[in-house]
Each structure stands twice: as structure tokens, then as C-alpha cells.
Amino acid sequence: MNNQDNNMRRQNPNSIRDENGELTIDIWAVARSVLSRWWLILMVGVALAAITFVIFQAVHVDTYTAEGNIYLVSKGTDNQGQQGMQVSDAVAADRFMNDYLEIMQDQSNFRAALARVEEEMLDTYQNKESLSEEQLAQLKKQIADQVGTLTVEGLQKAAKVWNNNGTHFIWVSVTSVNDKLSYAATRAVLNSSVDRLRGFYGVEQVDVTKVPDWPLKKDASGLIKYTLIAGLAGMLIVIAILAFLYIKDDKVNTSDDVEQYLGLTVLAMIPVYDPDDAASDGTQHR
Question: How do residues 176-216 score in pLDDT, each as one tens digit?
């Protein structure tokens, strides 16, 4: 009996090797087994998402991103170097675009922008006209202290400059933990870029067409992203564990398993006697 039982357990009914030694797994059976515990999968996913949300809120520092753009039109030239007709939109956008982006991302442009940040930041205070000279001086000192922590390298790192292919628009964004500083720095980069590009060969027209919206909203994309990733990762881990446990289970659990995997016919089944169930329904056994 022990040998027969060992042989039955040795042949895993959930993952069978055929005569060629290839492993065959009943995918539908695995899926049914895993989905039968959907509540466990969902519970772990929600729990991990909630834990991630709380931790992220505790350690995350709120940031603000200001975004604006400039509109730029190039000129075309003929083979003799004379100024020719304005080229098509697609060509105009691509002809010198890499050069324009290089100018805007150059350290000298960010140095010029940094010199404008205090003035741009002062514009975010709408009630500055009603301030006394002393109050205005204190406000300017406060702004100078805030801007003083920003370096050219720091501004260059916080800023992003890009162009969507086939358009005349160059976008600029600056991310900072200070909403006013982010707003002012973005406007400063836009205006300094316009001044530099106006003197560049091939530029016919360049203007700021979109300034950042004020007030800025907190960046919440990271919180949502990491919460969703944690929830999905938790569910996938549970699914993988349940599937692994089901495939590695070498016990014959049901009468169907006996007929399907052992080729035997079940003549009768003896139910498991539970004294607690018998007591609950009033049945007495001796």
C-alpha cells in the first residue's frame, strides 16, 4: 500500500511528463485554481498599494512643474546664399531645430535666465503694488534669498527643453519644490531664449506663446504611478505563488484526479467525519 501511495504521489497530477519526457501542464486547471482565490489576490494588491501610498506620502517631497513654449519660424535660403522664400512648415521646423535647442540648453543661456529669475518671481506677487517701500524691500530680500540657493548648474538640471517633431514650438519646463521659483525660472528661460534666438541666423520670428499657468499644481503623477505599480506587483506575486504551489502539488485531491491521472474507477467515497458538524445538527454517534 505504501509503495502504491508513493507511486501515486511521484506522478504529479498537475504537471505530467509524457513518454518523451516533456512536461505538460493543464493551463486551464492552473487558471481555475488561481482565480478561485481571487479574494486573496485582490486583498494583497490593495494592501501593498495602500502601504506604498502611505510611505510615499511620508517620504515624498512635493514638487511643482511649470511649462511654457515659444513659437519659432525659420527662413529658407537658395543655393547662392541669398535669402529665399520661407520654407514649408515641416522643413522650417526641422532645418535648424537642433541648433535652436542647443542654444537654449547652453549654459550661457541658463546664466542669462538666472539673472532674470528675481524679477520674474516678483511678478508672482499680485499685491506688490500695495506694499510700502519697506515691505517691498523685505519682499525683494526674501526673493533674493530664495533665488540665491539656485545655481546655473541647478537650473540647467531642473529645466527640460524639447521640440515635438514637425512643429514650430519649443517647450520649456522647470521642476522645483518651490512653486514660485519653478514658475519664475520657466519664464526666465523662455524670455532669455527668445532674446538669444532673435539674433541667430535663419530665425525670422520667435516669441513666447505660452507662459506657465499660475498657480501651479503639485505633481501627483509619481504617487499614482508607484501606487498602481505596487498594487499590480502584489497581485502578480500572489498569482505566481499560487500557480507554483498548484503545479508542485503532487497529491490526488478529488475522484476526478483518480480517474484522469491514475486510470482507476472510483467505486465509493467515504466522507470525513467531523464531530463538530455532527454536534451542531443534533446527530449522536456512538
Answer: 998 999 999 999 999 999 999 987 767 778 899 999 988 88
CA distance linking residue 247 with residue 153, whole number of Å: 56
Global pTM reads: 0.62
The domain limits of the chain are: 2-56+221-253, 64-210
* Chain segment 110-150, per-residue pLDDT in tens: 999 999 999 998 888 877 778 888 888 898 898 898 888 88
Q: Is the dihedral of CA 238, 240, 241, 247 positive or negative?
A: positive
* Cα-Cα-Cα-Cα dihedral sign, residues 234, 239, 244, 245: positive
